[in-house]
UniProtKB/TrEMBL annotation:
The keyword Membrane applies. The keyword Zinc does not apply. The chain crosses the membrane at residues 24-45, 86-104, 111-133, 139-161, 181-200, 220-238, 245-269, 281-303. Coiled coil: none annotated. This is Uncharacterized protein. Keywords: Membrane, Transmembrane, Transmembrane helix. It comes from the Bacteria.
Amino acid sequence: MRTHPEHRLPQDERQVPEGPRRPVLWWCALIAVLAGVAAVMGLVLQDGPGPFWADTVRGQTVQIAGRGLYRYDTVFTAAGSRATDLVTLVIGIPLLVGATVGWWRGGTRAGLVLLGGLGYFLYIYAGYALGAIAYNGLFLLYVVLFSSSLYAFVLVFAALFRQGPARLFPPGTPRRGPAALMFASAVVLLVVWGTPLVTAAVTGAAPEGLGPYSTEFTEALDLAVITPATVWAGVLILRRDPRGYLIAVSLLLLEILLAPLIIAQTILQLRAGVTFTLPEIIGPMIGFVILALAAVAVLAAILRHVPATARRPERAPRAGPGGSP
């Protein structure tokens, strides 16, 4: 069927996303499939004798799950990991697939959502591969997911950066709200993770939640990578540097997904027999829900100013004989 001449656009006017779309498509397809397999196995496998008590090398007594994929983790961590698998399966993977399809079709906003979604998978599977949970039979799968998420994230970030942050985030894009949320997020991370670590360093004791694990991976990642990134994004945004928005968007979706993560983890941990006081249950839930709602509002405000589709930079006219166009 022939296209009516009015509906044709010159090559330079076609609105298409920049960058290596096909490699990203394959990376994201691989992530969706492997993450689905890992999440289902984490939720379904329940073999094993059940919980038992064990002494750690530091002389602490901890309860080990003893059942399922996370049988060598503490009851607390195993339940939290299963909750993470649930959120990944129900929210993370559909979000990744939808954003990938939207970006493939030329949607700039979908590309930004894809960047944030890949940030979530990178965050989760970096932890699984590098020691946030005990070694289990899916370790190599976690390594592949970590690697795939990392390189897909870099490719999408580079593709969006090549489009030009100034064109993605025009001058009218809000500054104060996004910057304030970035700074607030940094403060929250410093207080929540930094306080017990400083206390442990001063007293010479291991952090209370360390259990049988060798290090606090989540705290290290949040304090070494996420916290500086939020501060950097906030500073750039206040300076009217559009690169700050690109960094912020990659973090906002992670903040949004923290709310269902914390809620699901708390529920499954309670069902597994972990005891919490009422403030320990309500406090984190309310805090992370408020943070997630603020992130939703800020992300929506930013995306409203982003062009729906991206256009390739206009090419300079070729010079004719004698130098004239």
